[in-house]
Amino acid sequence: LNVQINNTNERYNSLGKLSIVAHYRFNIIALFSGQNLQDVEAANLKSKQEAADRLAKIKQIIKEASELGEIETKLFYFISASSYYTNVDVVLPAEIAIAKFSLQRGVIDSIAMSINPGSELPLGSTLEAKLKAEIHKYPLPSIGEKDYVNVLMNFLKFISSDENSLPIFFTEGILEKLLETQRIFKLIFEKAGEFSIANDLNIYSVD
Q1: Which bin fits 118, alpha (ψ -120 to 50), beta or left (φ > 0)?
Q2: Which whole-number Å values give the CA distances from 186 to 68, 111, 152, 200, in the listed order?
Q3: What is the pLDDT of residue 4?
Q4: Over the stretch 73-119, which tens digit does the pLDDT of each residue have?
Q5: Maximum Cα–Cα distance for the chain, whole Å?
Q6: Residues 6+ positions from 96 with CB-CB distance below 8 Å
């Protein structure tokens, strides 16, 4: 357990170094997009506190599962999301994927869903959207699900057979990918009108 926790600490230290780079990048973006730098600084401080809270929660999960002898059979959920376009104010989701796994059984089940964000691409975003579509192999314009309620219901149905409440979700450790996934899933919950559940959504980095 100590080894697992120490490894987790090392990974979060690395993530902290990445966040420093992202800090300056986001400040530059904010400067040129007319954002208030004080607001950006406040958001950065909030992100750092949230990262510390996530680490404490992960330690607690590992500790409790180990004490109960359930670490090998405990279910974990890995989620990922991609977008056609993102900026400081806008995210246009393209697809999401969820996998259910345990240390003992590996990947147990998974689902993937294409999403039609239902919005025209903002001016100047076409090139980025085309590049992302080519990289991730999804169609542009989208032919995915337009109804966010249906997207959310399929997502909740996938986890409801094993969970009574929203579990913790894990995603890729790259900072920008983590933030993109968090934004997309929060948007899905909010577009479906589930604002209270959106506040209970916890997505942590696997690194």
Answers
A1: left
A2: 32, 18, 10, 10
A3: 43
A4: 888 899 999 888 888 788 889 899 999 988 888 899 999 999 988 76
A5: 54
A6: 79, 80, 81, 82, 112, 113, 115, 151, 155, 184, 185, 188
Round to whole Å and give the CA distance between 82 and 130. 13
DSSP class of 145:
B
Give the residue carrying structure tokens 């991730």.
Answer: 136
Band (pLDDT 50/70/90 cuts) for residue 162 is low
Say which range, 88-97, 124-133, 147-156, has the weakest mean pLDDT. 124-133
Q: How far is CA 63 from the centre of its chain?
A: 24
Residue whose C-alpha is closest to residue 79's, from 93, 100, 102, 98: 98
Give the C-alpha separation, 110 to 154, whole Å.
12
What's the pTM value of the predicted model, to 2 decimals? 0.67
pLDDT tens figures, 49-59: 776 776 777 77
Q: Please tell me the distance from the alpha carbon of residue 139 to that of residue 142, in angstroms, as a whole number.
A: 5
> Residue 131 corresponds to which tokens in the numbers above?
């590049």
Instruction: Tell me the two tokens of residue 164.
Output: 């009574």
Characterize the bridge pairing of strands 203-205 and 169-171. Answer: parallel
| CA terminus-to-terminus distance, the chain | 16
Closest CA to 39 of 24, 27, 50, 48: 27
